[in-house]
Amino acid sequence: MAFSNENGQIEEELSYDAWGRRRSPSTWEPFTFSDDDTSDYDQGFTGHEHIDLFDMVNMDGRMYDPVVGRFLSPDPYIQMPDFTQSLNRYAYCINNPLSLTDPTGYNWLGDVFATVVGIAVGIETGGLGAGIYGAIIGGTLGGASAALVGSVLNGANLWQTTKNVFVGAFWGAAGGAMNFEIGEIRNVFARIAVHSVSEGVVEGIQGGHFEHGLLLGLTSSAGGELISRYGSNLPYAGQIAANATLGGLVSELGGGKFANGAMTAAYTMMYNELMHPSVKRVLKNILKKGASYNRIMALKYAIQADGILSFEEAYIWYQLGNGKEITVDASKLCLPTIKKDGIPWEKVNEYGNFSINTYQGGADQFLVYGTITGHVESSNRISIMTDTYNFEMHSLKGGPMNIIKEIIRNGETAIGGWLHGHGTTFNINFKGYYKF
What we know:
Blueprint: E1 2-4, E2 10-13, E3 15-16, E4 22-23, E5 49-51, E6 56-58, E7 63-65, E8 70-71, H1 108-125, H2 132-153, H3 158-183, H4 188-205, H5 210-230, H6 236-253, H7 258-273, H8 279-289, H9 293-304, H10 311-320, E9 326-329, H11 336-341, E10 353-357, H12 363-369, E11 371-378, E12 381-384, E13 387-389, H13 400-420, E14 426-431, E15 434-435
Parallel strand pairs: 9-14
Antiparallel strand pairs: 1-2, 3-4, 5-6, 6-7, 7-8, 10-11, 11-12, 12-15, 13-14
Helix pairs in contact: 1-2, 1-7, 2-3, 3-4, 3-7, 4-5, 5-6, 5-7, 6-7, 8-9
């Protein structure tokens, strides 16, 4: 390996034998005195910290002596009891350094098992809260459990275990929240780009390489998109496992740990892709497997995701929603007349309310909302009162023109009710404000 400056010029070249003992880069002869193999840089063999004064390598979990090819302390676990080379718990890479490296100094099976436990806990606990709260809860408990299992299997003491659990919980919560919020981005290419950069930044904050995190984020996000689109027949856990495997392999090929890449990709799938399903995908799942409570809640979240309630979505929710309220974004209404002319003050009553006919925003909007009630908040901002999605007839009262309007309205309502068939009335709640 070599170190170069910003101009690409090599400042120092280092060479090691298979066991990590430093040697001359030109002759490959091992150095005989400690002073001869002193480097200006801490990192060396397999990227670990070298302590040149003592000819030791700090492999994080344990100290390693490259001169004799042995750790100074035993591995807490025998990883392969049926393989004789594994019985020597001081050995480096089961005495096979030409094929294997040891990134942590500990049990590699422990890291993988801890990752599997963390992912499983994240899956089971992510549903304890709705939306981002579920992602934070699942991420926190998943990260903490993975750290706990990994610490116990690798023989950490109480202080190390406690520290690892809190750090794992923090990064798990951060990962869950970050993936969930990125999933709110509707454009798929923008979502992949933001996720890639975010993973790179997180990797850098944690002491890794931005490029490695960028590649892992790109792979896990793009892989999640493809799996959710073409692998929707797989069960929930199967989709997560597929993306976790992909992320782990990419991480391994990029010089990182399989376990870290798998956990990152699994969180992407759980809290980015599967918590932001499309309405059609959820509806397909309901028609195939039945309308369970969790699937109906997933449908509600999918309908509310973009803040807009289309006629097709309203029709589906009328049939399946059991009367539960739907929340939409008032700012996404299309009200061009108000946008252009402002508040029709002549229609505002003493309470600051006035009627708005939503036909001006197109047939799709009008078929959902019909006439809604706005409330004046300021000269350029209104809120929208809760509306009801139903097919009730209006009474015929008022002047002749008003009666004619109500007859036409009731006719349209009757046709709509006939097309919808049997369903349950539900309220539409408008969050935020419509500004102009």
